[in-house]
Specification:
- The protein is α/β, with parallel strands linked by helices and 234 residues long.
- The chain is built from nine helices and six strands, in the order E-H-E-E-H-E-E-E-H-H-H-H-H-H-H.
- 38% of the residues lie in helices and 12% in strands.
- The strands form two sheets. The protein has a four-stranded parallel sheet, with helices on both faces. It has a two-stranded antiparallel ribbon with strand order 5-6.
- Helix 4 packs across helix 7.
- The longest helix has 14 residues.
């Protein structure tokens, strides 16, 4: 993994934007959507991030000065100078899906975003809002954290009450959270037989089990590319 994806809360925070033209305006619109306070002053106080939409030597000079102040900098079309990149975004507020290529190809990121836009239902955000609003009821139904996670996993499965690719909404989440549904599969041991070292060769079932498991025991030669498909806290 070449970068750590993060979601930054920029509402009311200063971001420096240097340059003009089409690229700078695209970055400006993105920052405005995130609620940032945009400054064109390269020494603006309180800024943590800067975006440089300049060409050639001007970009080099500005980037050096900004980094010397400790700012994280994105330089348009110069991935070698970037501390961070801006992804293509699928917005299903509050659900955000960010697609990045580390600056290798903005076109590829855009193409993937367009595919996902067509796949993901517009009401996806309502499930997230419903789950957040129902947290007290969910905790009351399943006081144990492991039971709670398994119940939510089961409810989000394909065809289940909260299937994110289905038609569930906030009201459905509230109904589910108060109905005392089954927790899902009981604690058990599953065996996954790998057919290759390529994670793309995992079956859908194997990928699902890796993503749901509490504990994973594996041979020492299992590739890291397979193991990273597991939950980070497994």
């Amino acid at each position: 993994m070449h970068s750590l994806p993060l979601f930054l809360r920029l509402t009311g925070r200063t971001v420096i934007l240097l340059g003009d033209g089409v690229a700078a305006e695209a970055k400006r619109r993105l920052l405005e959507r995130a609620g940032a306070v945009i400054s064109t002053d390269p020494i603006a106080a309180g800024a943590m991030l800067a975006i440089v939409a300049l060409d050639g030597q001007d970009a080099d000079v500005a980037t050096t000065a900004l980094k010397a102040r400790g700012l994280l900098v994105n330089v348009v079309d110069r991935p070698d100078l970037c501390d961070f990149t801006t992804p293509a975004i699928v917005d299903r507020d509050p659900v955000l899906i960010a697609i990045g290529t580390g600056g290798a190809s903005a076109g590829l990121a855009k193409a993937l975003r367009q595919r996902l836009e067509a796949l993901l239902p517009p009401g996806l955000g309502s499930i997230a809002r419903g789950l957040f609003a129902s947290r007290p009821a969910i905790r009351a139904q399943w006081p144990d954290a492991g039971d709670r996670r398994r119940a939510i996993d089961a409810a989000l499965m394909p065809g289940a009450p909260l299937d994110p690719m289905g038609s569930a909404a906030e009201a459905d989440v509230a109904t589910w959270a108060h109905s005392g549904p089954l927790m899902g599969d009981p604690m058990r041991v599953e065996r996954i037989m790998l057919t290759s070292a390529d994670p793309d060769d995992l079956t859908l079932r194997a990928a699902r089990l890796l993503g749901q498991a509490d504990v994973i025991r594996h041979d020492g030669d299992v590739p890291a590319a397979i193991l990273v498909r597991a939950r980070a806290d497994a």
